[in-house]
């Protein structure tokens, strides 16, 4: 069982991905670099293409807002405490 710190720091990688590479076996979701980019509320600072995240189902809706996730591991983390992760985007 992971605590909140472990879920946050280990879901994707320890560092943000570069726009040109998807080197940690996660699909690169920066399909429109410079366009529609936001950051992941779980792995704060990881850039995410809204369009690519929607196309792959990597988003969550919470209290009327849409949150885009950088990888599949962030979904369960967000689901476990959406208020916490939504606050990261405020």
TrEMBL record:
InterPro entries: Ferritin-like_SF, RNR-like, YHS_dom
MF-aspect GO terms: oxidoreductase activity
Region Disordered, residue ranges: 1-24
Ranges of residues in domain YHS: 46-87
Position of the signal peptide: none
Name of protein: YHS domain-containing protein
Composition bias, Low complexity: 8-23
Cross-referenced Gene3D superfamilies: Ribonucleotide Reductase, subunit A (1.10.620.20)
Native organism taxonomy: Bacteria, Bacillati, Actinomycetota, Actinomycetes, Micrococcales
């Amino acid at each position: 069982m992971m605590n909140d710190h472990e879920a946050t720091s280990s879901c994707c990688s320890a560092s943000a991905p570069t726009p040109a590479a998807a080197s940690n076996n996660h699909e690169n979701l920066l399909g429109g670099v410079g366009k529609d980019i936001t950051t992941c509320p779980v792995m704060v600072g990881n850039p995410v293409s809204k369009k690519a995240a929607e196309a792959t189902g990597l988003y969550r809706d919470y209290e009327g807002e849409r949150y885009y996730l950088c990888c599949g591991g962030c979904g369960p983390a967000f689901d476990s405490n959406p208020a916490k992760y939504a606050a990261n985007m405020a």
